[in-house]
Amino acid sequence: MLASRLFYAALILVGVTFVVASLVKLVPGDPVDVIAAGNPGMSLADMELLRERMGLTRSVPEQFAAYLGGALQGDLGTSIRQGVPVTQLIGERLPATAELAFWAIVIALALAVPIGILTALKRDTWVDYAGTSFAVLGVSTPGFLLAVMLILWFSIDLRWLPASGYRGSALGALFGDPLAFWSKFRYFILPAISLAFVLVAMNARLIRSAMLEVVEQDYIAFATAKGVPRAVIILRHALRNALLPVVTMVGLQMGGLLSGTVVIETVFAWPGIGRLAVDAIHIRDYPVIQAVVLVSAVLFITINLVVDGLYRLIDPRVRDE
Q: Which of the residues 18, 19, 105, 216 has the least number of beta carbons within 10 Å of its own beta carbon?
């Protein structure tokens, strides 16, 4: 089972690598002319050298073979504008995006799980209606609009939290100096909430639907008849089975967050791979764009494999297949 999933993941990765390697060929017109338009000092010799570096003089299969060989050795090319290895840029930006995604998921689950459970247990009451209204508001509110509103309220009006910037990892200081942790974590709060808001709404509704289906099962009625405490039934039996679809959803959400939260990172001037991709697109830095796409695909595939493993831990029925 695991071997087949790894095989299909490898096929998908090879396909993505082929598309990424061919990306420059697929760009309308001559990418070198586009880059030269923003660099008036480039000579014809410089343009020909750049065309050679970008592989425009080679066929697509040759370019794919060269790119795949370099990627397997950790070489994703060199940034045209900055002149440094792309892997260095990704390595510098990815930790900031990864930790931001982590805090966003933590906030989302910390709110979505209790909201989903309460709205399921209080079906057709004011609690359920309030949860439904919140879900509609969450999925219909644009992330950039919420981000701007949070900046106006908490940064400009109240002056409680910084409007932008990044001061390093907060996880590294989590179990150390509380003041050092807060000095770093406060920069995560607004962007993490901006990302988590829609995730809370989606996951809360998903948990509610799954809980409503699970609590009607025979084993829940049997546990109730045996006198098992209500809290044990809900948290140990019902919630565990209701988490299966949530694990899938959270895996997809985490993959999307790790791939680069482009809008939120741009609004909060966050030094992540999403903003790196936006900057690369603006200056036509194609090796960086290719690398971000490839790394995003690798992250998605890896997270899907992790989700499969979590399925087996949560549900013994899947484990026995």
A: 216
Dump pLDDT digits (tens) for 225-245. Answer: 777 777 777 777 777 777 777
Per-residue pLDDT tens digits for 118-136: 888 887 788 888 887 887 7
What one-letter code names the amino acid at 302?
A: T
88-282, what's its fold? MetI-like fold (1.10.3720)
- Taking only the tens place, the pLDDT of each residue in 251-307 is 778 777 776 678 888 888 888 888 888 888 777 777 888 888 888 888 888 887 787
Is the CB of residue 292 less than 8 Å from the CB of residue 79?
A: no
Instruction: Give the CA distances from residue 263 to residues 192, 257, 268, in Å, rounded to whole numbers and listed in that order.
Output: 12, 11, 9
Q: Which two tokens stand for residue 132?
A: 């439904």
The Cα 285–Cα 83 span in angstroms is 10
- With contact defined as beta carbons under 8 Å apart, do 277 and 260 qualify? yes
Tokens of 62: 């040759």
Give the angle subtended at the CA of 192 by the CAs of 256 and 117, to the nearest 5°: 85
Instruction: Calculate the dihedral angle through the C-alpha atoms of 60, 65, 68, 71, rounding to the nearest 10 degrees.
Output: -100
Buried b (16+ CB within 10 A) or exposed e, 262-296: bbbbbbbebbbbbbbbbebeeebbbbbbbbbbbbb
Return the exposure string of 109-133: e unless at least 16 CB atoms fall within 10 Å of the residue's CB, then b: bebbbebbbbbbbeeeeeebeebee
Is the pTM here over 0.85, yes or no? no
